[in-house]
Automatic annotation (TrEMBL):
GO MF assignments: acyltransferase activity, acyl groups converted into alkyl on transfer; hydroxymethylglutaryl-CoA lyase activity; metal ion binding
Record family assignment: Belongs to the alpha-IPM synthase/homocitrate synthase family.
Alphabetized UniProt keyword annotations: Lyase, Metal-binding, Transferase
GO biological process annotation, one example: ketone body biosynthetic process
Entries under InterPro entries matching the protein: AIPM/Hcit_synth_CS, Aldolase_TIM, HMGL, PYR_CT
Protein name, entry field: Hydroxymethylglutaryl-CoA lyase
Annotated organism of origin: Thermoactinomyces mirandus
Listed CDD domains: DRE_TIM_HMGL (cd07938)
Pfam families noted in UniProt: HMGL-like
Keyword ATP-binding recorded: no
Pyruvate carboxyltransferase domain mapped to chain residues: 4-270
Length: 303
């Protein structure tokens, strides 16, 4: 298997779905811990209006005080106003987002898909003028909580528009965690007839326990960039109590066990996740993390 790029999104996509509010100081400490564990691509916050995501209302403070580490820092920006805020910080690159279903897009952004594209183009153009790269997120690729099945042709049309406007990579999101491996394989096969695998990434939620299998299907199809969240941080607003993003620990374990070097120290990563568990007052869903914690407890009891 070729080299795999892991994009850690727990500090943004994970924390925005957690009811607990972590301090900017703690987030900075988590950034340092993740970097020390070997994480190279970190999405640290989102410059949306604070009233929409209060958990990330400290975006300006967090992004203005990033540790000087060999890490690519990214932040989500919804529009020109968000980008202008982000440009005043130390973030290296940005990401724009929209859905592949009109209903979800209107619920999320208050615009249709066609109305959203010019807004994103303005962001991309301005970012490029400032010498910054832009990534794209497409949500509800494998299913919408309002419309159900999302046609592959719609996803392809949207991705082509995003690539034409200048995003360097598109993350395909299983927003509500409904995808199964065979479905992922079929949709990717169709998408890859018109889109290059090198410009795509997989973003899976483990809501129904298929996240890791879906990620493996992505790798087999030639899509070698995957988004994950340390500890499996996060959740799905449409499935209360369900597991959130695919856990970084689970993916790293599978890859390393398969002979793929990730450069990530699993022990350090797990210690970081156990550390944040204490501040969230809840166990995180990563399966590898649970086994690590059990073994750690057993060793301590044997001392």
């Amino acid at each position: 298997m070729a080299e795999v790029k892991i994009v850690e999104v727990g500090l943004r996509d994970g924390l925005q779905n957690e009811p607990a509010m972590l301090s900017a100081e703690l987030k900075r400490e988590l950034i340092s811990r993740l970097a020390e564990a070997g994480v190279k691509h970190l999405e640290v916050t989102s410059f949306v209006h604070p009233k929409w995501i209060p958990q990330l209302s400290d975006a300006d403070l967090v992004a203005s005080n990033l540790p000087d580490l060999p890490v690519t820092y990214r932040a989500l920006v919804p529009n020109r106003q968000g980008l202008e805020r982000a440009l005043k910080t130390g973030v290296d690159e940005y990401a724009v987002f929209m859905s592949a279903s009109d209903t979800h897009n209107r619920k999320n952004i208050n615009k249709s898909m066609k109305e959203t594209l010019p807004v994103l183009k303005e962001v991309v153009d301005l970012a490029h003028q400032e010498g910054k790269r832009i990534r794209g997120y497409v949500s509800t690729v494998f299913g919408c909580p309002y419309e159900g099945e999302v046609p592959v042709k719609t996803v392809a049309w949207l991705c082509e528009h995003l690539l034409q406007m200048g995003v360097y990579e598109i993350s395909l999101g299983d927003t509500i965690g409904v995808a199964a491996p065979q479905e992922v394989k079929q949709k990717l096969n169709e998408l890859l007839t018109v889109l290059p695998a090198s410009r795509l990434a997989g973003h899976f939620h483990d809501t129904r326990g298929t996240g890791l299998a879906n990620a493996y299907v992505c790798l087999e199809a030639g899509v070698h960039t995957l988004d994950t969240s340390f500890g499996g941080l996060g959740g799905c607003p449409y499935a209360p109590g369900a597991a959130g993003n695919l856990a970084t620990e689970d993916l790293v374990y599978m890859l390393e066990r398969s002979g793929v070097k990730t450069g990530i120290d699993l022990n350090r990563l797990c210690e970081t996740s156990l550390y944040v568990q204490k501040h969230l007052n809840k166990p995180l869903p990563s399966k590898f993390l649970k086994s690590y914690a059990a073994e750690r407890k057993k060793q301590k009891e044997g001392q």
